[in-house]
Amino acid sequence: MARLRAAVPFSNRDWGLLLVIPGVILFSSFMLYPIVYLFYISLTDATFAGSVIGGGADLIGLDNYVQLLSDSQFWTSMTTTWLFVAVSLVIKVFLAVGIALLLNHARVFGKRYMRAAVIVPLGFPGIFTITVWRGMFSDARFGVFNTILGRYNGVMSSLSAPEILLFDVPIGFLSGRWEAFFAYVTTEVWLAYPFMVIIIVSALQDVPRELHEAAMVDGAGFLERFRTVTLPAIRRPVLFASILTGATAFQQFLIPWVFNQGGPARQNELIIVYGYREAISFNEFGLSAAILIVAIAVIGLFMYAAVRYGGLAEGVGDE
C-alpha cells in the first residue's frame, strides 16, 4: 500500500486543484476578462464601437475618471440609485417578513397553495412584468391607477369628505420625478419580494417550536416572541436575501429604461442607465466604461461590507 501511494504522482490536494482549474478558466473567460477589458476601455478615449473593437482608441489614463467625478449627473445618478436601493429594500424586508409570518402561522389554512401563489411573479419574464406595470402607471386619465383614484374620489365625494382626502386626477406617474421614483420602487418590490419570502419562510420553519412554547410559558406575547425568538433566528437569512436583492436593485436597468428612460430630464437615471446612455446616445464609450467600473467597485464594496460586518462569514474557513 505504501509503494502504491508513493507511485501516485498527485496528492489529494493536487487532484482537488486540478479539478478546480477548468472552472477557474471558465470564470476568468466569462467574468474576469470582460471586467479587465472594460477597465482598459475606461483608460482610453473610445468614442464609437469601431474604436473599441478595432483598437483605434488612444490611452488617456485616468482622465475619464476625473471627468466622471466632476460630472453633476454622475452624483445625481449615484444618489438616486442608492436611494432607490434603500427605499425598495426596506419595503421588501417588511413586506416579505410579514407575508412569511402569515404563511408560516399555524392557524392559516391553505398555506401550501398560498406559498405557490406568492412565487408566481418569478415565473414571468422581467420585461413582461415591467411593461405591465408601466401600463398600470400610465399618465392617461384611464390608466389603471388613475381610474382607481378617480373612483375613490367619487366615493369620497359622495360621503362629503374633505378636499384634502381627494386626489388631483390624473396623476402624472411617469412625468414627475418622485411619482416616477415611486413607480420604480413599487415595481422593484413586486419583482423581488417572492425570492425574499421563499428564503424567510424556509428560515421560519427551522425555528424550534420549543423556543416559542417556552417563551409562551414565560408570558411572552406575539411581539415579544418575535423580537426575542423569531428575529434572532431569521436574522442571517434575511440579511443574506437583503444583500442579494439590494445588489440586484443597484444594477436595475429595465425598470427606469422601460418606464421613462430615467426621466423626467434624467432626474431618475439610475447608474446603469447613466452608463448606457453615455455610450449609446453620446458615443462616450470610454466614459461609459469608467462609469460601469465605478459601479462594479461600489457594488463589490457594498457586498463585502455587508457580508463582513453582517456576520455572514462567521465560521467560513474555520478548521
Automatic annotation (TrEMBL):
It is found in: Cell membrane. GO terms for biological process: transmembrane transport. Gene3D superfamilies: MetI-like. Pfam families: BPD_transp_1 (PF00528). Keywords: Cell membrane, Membrane, Transmembrane, Transmembrane helix, Transport. PANTHER family: ARABINOOLIGOSACCHARIDES TRANSPORT SYSTEM PERMEASE PROTEIN ARAP, BLL4140 PROTEIN. This is Binding-protein-dependent transporters inner membrane component.
